[in-house]
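To illustrate the input format used throughout this study, we show a single complete record. The first block contains the structure-token representation of the backbone; no residue identities are included at this stage. The design step must infer an amino acid for every position from geometry alone.
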């Protein structure tokens, strides 16, 4: 019945029971959207019966009655997306051919343990606060592209990302700049850096706490590799963001292209226009380490 099935999408199912391993050798893509399994073995039996599975998408929004922890052992898996807003439970991942990983959620008591992903190329990790047994970033050291929205206080780094060339960091978590410093120090081949903020009124939102302190030594990637620096939703009113931007401009010797996008000034805020122009002019006047650096401002 399922021998030729290549794609399977299951949605909003309660107490799915898979008492023994299934046989779906042709299955390549599996979507599980709010699926509640009867017990942990049911999920394991489903995954183990798909030896050629390449794409797995898991979405969990509501508390599950039974299964709390999903153990994903998939030797052929290449792409894994996990979006989970439950208040507990987590994932153990063993996928030796995994190339792409996206994890979003697990922001309460959830966990994620990556046991085996040696050929990972790209990973996007957002709102993952609780680290289980190992430092999750250390499991991503083979990645060439990383997108991170994490608290630096809970993600110490003890690995070198020798393959990383493209890094995105969201600037919404408290002291996000400490994560930036750690990643710059740990990524000697980094060529593209993108910082992503929220396009909100700075005066209403306020600035996350903490203070920027320059690294004692300039990271290797700034001295010899970084070529592109992009900052979206740059808060020109933030002193910390100004200091971070200035530091990179002053120390990145190989920079070619730099762009800052800012929140537009609305008609009711015309009094801010002069202040904004002054701040951006000061940033544009920073003496750059790279003589060939081209800087643009975008609204």
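Output of the design step:
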């Amino acid at each position: 019945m399922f021998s030729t099935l290549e794609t399977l999408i299951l949605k909003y199912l309660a107490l799915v029971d898979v008492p023994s391993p299934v046989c779906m050798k042709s299955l390549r893509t599996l979507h599980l959207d709010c699926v509640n399994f009867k017990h942990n073995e049911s999920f394991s039996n489903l995954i183990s019966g798909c030896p050629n599975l390449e794409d797995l998408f898991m979405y969990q929004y509501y508390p599950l009655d039974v299964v709390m922890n999903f153990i994903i052992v998939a030797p052929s898996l290449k792409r894994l997306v996990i979006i989970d807003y439950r208040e507990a439970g987590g994932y153990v991942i063993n996928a030796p051919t995994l190339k792409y990983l996206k994890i979003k959620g697990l922001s309460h008591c959830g966990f994620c343990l990556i046991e085996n992903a040696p050929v990972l190329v790209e990973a996007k990790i957002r709102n993952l606060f609780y680290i289980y047994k190992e430092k999750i970033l250390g499991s991503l050291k083979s990645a060439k592209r990383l997108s991170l929205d994490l608290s630096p206080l809970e993600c110490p780094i003890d690995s070198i990302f020798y393959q990383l060339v493209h890094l995105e960091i969201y600037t919404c978590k408290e002291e996000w700049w400490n994560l930036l410093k750690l990643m710059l120090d740990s990524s000697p081949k980094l060529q593209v850096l993108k910082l992503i903020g929220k396009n909100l009124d700075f005066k209403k939102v306020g600035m996350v706490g903490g203070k920027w302190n320059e690294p004692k030594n300039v990271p290797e990637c700034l001295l010899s590799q970084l070529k592109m620096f992009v900052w979206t939703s740059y808060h020109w009113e933030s002193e910390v963001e100004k200091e971070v931007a200035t530091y990179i401009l002053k120390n990145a010797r190989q920079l070619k292209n730099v762009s800052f996008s800012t929140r537009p000034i609305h008609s009711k805020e015309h009094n801010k226009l002069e202040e904004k122009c002054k701040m951006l002019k000061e940033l544009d006047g920073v003496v750059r380490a790279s003589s060939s650096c081209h800087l643009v401002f975008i609204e």
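Structural context for interpreting the output: The radius of gyration is 22 Å. The mean pLDDT is 86.
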